[in-house]
Amino acid sequence: MNSLSWRWAFYINIPICFVTLLLTVFLVSGDVSPKVKTSFDLIGILLLSPMFALFIYGISQVGTYGGFGNTEVLVPVLLGVLLLAVYVYYALRTKNEPVIDLRLFQSRNFTVSTVMMFISGMATNGAMLLLPLYYQQVRGESILMTGVMMIPGGRHAADTQQDWAPDG
Asked: Where do the structural domains in the chain lie, given as residue ranges?
């Protein structure tokens, strides 16, 4: 088994996908959903796309400009929040089906599960956000070594960096 090349990690998926496709064709029944045609929500897309872009851009500038007090950070974040508020108003008032149906939050189970998934995502991914900063600012690692240490199992590579790292 150790003599196989790394490509076999991908080749093994071919027969699995083939069997899955065959089982799908023979075991999954046809379309049973009602033939309800929904329209494309252009207004929702035109509100949400720049909202996400502006908000994420503004948040990404926090480190560059040293906080939320700078206009290069505040303007895109506030424009993103404004577009989000406009979308919420639009989505709750439209008679068409919006891109993201906010009426789902009327269900207590949906709301609680969404909040719990958000909190668990923060707990799970929070370390992945802070770990590169720790490696670079506390331990003084280079960007390359930080990237190597972030690879799964990269801790072993960091422990043996003297063996393969260039002099300097």
From this structure: 40-101, 107-168
